[in-house]
Specification:
alpha/beta, Urease, subunit C, domain 1, TIM Barrel, 6-stranded antiparallel β-sheet, 30 strands
């Protein structure tokens, strides 16, 4: 009651407000119009919009446009390679005040302890007792993503029921195993039922699922999708009640095409997400604000675009006091230079100034690093002989990665043998290995890759979607073994071994993220990538970031897991040797 009285008294000018933002052009998400005036704030909540308000503190917007705080509807923070604190230091100054985060990657490595780490690390951020970033954590639904690889954890239906009851989780993360949902798999139904009974949002992931199978998928209560492959698919899913997440990530950007499905009748059912944003992209181009700029550049009205990043997302996820600048809504406000560039001048969270001129005003250099997310690279002893490939018949299947794509093709190649091992000298072949790193099982999947270009070197990384085993590529067995050792010693990371030098950049948080400052993460990832390129990696491939998807056993055609070469089209393992 005292708080309500104060808010009413402030709104009616009987009492001074805590903060008044003056001289702003205030964008109204309900009408699509702007008005000039004051934004009156008390107890972290907007109490009024008008003129001549008095406040204990005054902030002069100097003609900037005030829009609601931006919300990313779906993101895997781990893909930035940054700690939670470092990620916030980049995202918040660009106007992001909330994220719906699916810790799928770290939970596949560390189990629920990975999600607990993410929540705690973000919760420690503060400006005068206010956290600058709302984090709505989803419980990953696919741990492991497939049964064809060794993951660091298994979260089945029973555990999902138990964990969703905790305040730790806001909802159920993307249901990537859409065939299991459509087939009414019992364990997946148990997960879905648990979320529905607790009235928690269920995120979707259903590329090219349409018609009756789409109806089956939606009958499970799934609400969103970020994987539409065309505007036509968007329209069909909109017509069946879905929210469409327009994705603007560092690798995948279906926003660039799917925005064409938006019109004056349906734009309120579109929301914006990043899915995956790496550190250089965040630093260079921004976060959700980058998507806003693109939409407006493509001809989408600014009013629609802003709604997609604010009110639409808040309504989709049931965030009743978010997404607008209006009485009784939280004072999450971004001042931008205009509605074309969306360059953030100042960011307010619950009425507290948390970033200004693209700089965070909160401490972000103290890293929370519990033991549960450290020392996660556990491998059986690896030697040069671990990478020998005996293909006696002389014919082999090789993976060819389509340049600038995540898709691989199967090519058949002739190979020569020497001393019981494939000869790579004088060929366009390299070896690929996936080394199990969670339980030291000794599993090593081996394959050949054609035309990647790497020569006289080996490279490796401990990020490998989605189970995150070690992925090693090279044309020398000894160098590949040395890369494994470097990654083990570093607790995960990115490594290169050549004749002249070796280098490793540690990803000491679950082998997925670095506790280093933002600037160091950006500089070192670029540096180590350039070293790999010097040794022949061809244009069209990011030396490490392409590698991390070569074990993802849900993208055609050939993939490699720690259990062997996998044909995604037949959903079965296959032999490297053609017999």
């Amino acid at each position: 009651m005292p708080n309500l009285k104060k808010r009413i008294d402030c709104a009616t000018k009987r009492t001074k407000c805590d903060l008044v933002i003056k001289n702003a052009h205030i964008f109204n998400v309900f009408t699509g119009e702007t008005e000039e005036g004051d934004i009156a704030i008390a107890d972290g909540v907007v109490v009024a919009i008008g003129n001549a308000y008095e406040g204990e503190r005054i902030y002069d917007a100097k003609g900037a446009v005030a829009i609601p705080g931006l919300i990313d509807a779906h993101i895997h923070v781990e893909s930035s390679l940054l700690s939670a604190e470092a990620f916030a230091s980049l995202a918040v100054p660009h106007g992001t005040t909330g994220i719906v985060a699916d810790p799928h990657e770290i939970v596949n490595v560390c189990g629920i302890a990975g999600a607990e780490y993410m929540k705690e690390a973000f919760s420690r951020l503060s400006v005068d007792g206010v956290n600058p970033l709302d984090v709505y954590l989803q419980l990953p639904s696919c741990v492991p993503a497939t049964p064809f690889e060794t993951s660091g954890a298994i979260i089945d239906g029973k555990e999902t029921e138990r964990e969703l009851k905790r305040d730790l989780f806001f909802g159920l993360g993307e249901m990537m195993n859409y065939p299991a949902v459509i087939a009414a798999d019992e364990d997946n139904l148990r997960k879905l039922t648990a979320a529905k009974e607790l009235d928690k949002v269920i995120d979707g992931h259903a590329p090219a699922v349409t018609g009756d199978t789409l109806s089956g998928y939606l009958a499970a209560g799934i609400r969103t999708d970020h994987e539409c492959v065309s505007p036509e698919e968007c329209v069909q899913k909109l017509a069946r009640g879905m929210y469409i997440q327009l994705r603007n990530g560092s690798s995948a950007r279906n926003l660039d095409v799917n925005y064409k499905a938006m019109n004056a009748y349906n734009f309120r059912r579109f929301i914006l997400c990043s899915d995956d944003k790496n550190a250089p992209d965040l630093a260079r181009n921004g976060h959700v604000d980058d998507a806003l700029r693109k939409l407006v550049r493509y001809g989408v009205p600014a009013a629609w675009a802003i709604s997609c990043a604010t009110l639409n997302t808040a309504e989709c996820y049931g965030l009743k006091d978010k997404g607008a600048i209006a009485p009784a809504y939280q004072a999450d406000i971004v001042l931008v230079n205009n509605l074309t560039d969306f360059n953030a001048v100042a960011v307010f969270k619950q009425g507290k100034l948390v970033a200004e001129h693209k700089k965070p005003l909160f401490a972000c250099d103290m890293r929370y690093l519990p033991k549960e997310v450290g020392s996660t690279v556990r491998i059986k002893e690896v030697t040069a002989d671990s990478f020998r490939m005996n293909i006696g018949g002389g014919r082999a299947r090789a993976m060819h990665v389509v340049p600038n794509s995540l898709v691989t093709e199967e090519v058949q190649v002739s190979v020569k043998m020497k001393d019981g091992d494939v000869v790579l000298d004088g060929t366009d072949l390299t070896k690929l290995a996936v080394v199990e790193r969670h339980f030291a099982t000794g599993n090593i999947g081996l394959a050949l890759v054609k035309d990647y270009g790497l020569k006289h070197a080996a490279i490796g990384v401990s990020v490998a979607h989605d189970s995150h085993n070690l992925v090693i590529m090279g044309d020398d067995n000894g160098k590949m073994a040395r890369v494994c050792k470097l990654l083990q010693q570093a607790g995960g990371g990115m490594a290169v071994v050549t004749d002249e030098k070796e280098d490793v950049f540690a990803l000491d948080i679950a082998g997925l993220m670095s506790s280093a400052p933002v600037e160091e993460v950006i500089a070192r990832t670029v540096e180590i990538g350039e070293l790999a390129k010097v040794h022949g990696v061809k244009d069209g491939y990011e030396p490490f970031m392409t590698l991390v998807f070569l074990s993802l056993a849900v993208i055609p055609k050939l993939r490699l897991t720690d259990k062997g070469l996998f044909d995604v089209e037949t959903f079965s393992f296959t032999d490297v040797e053609i017999k």
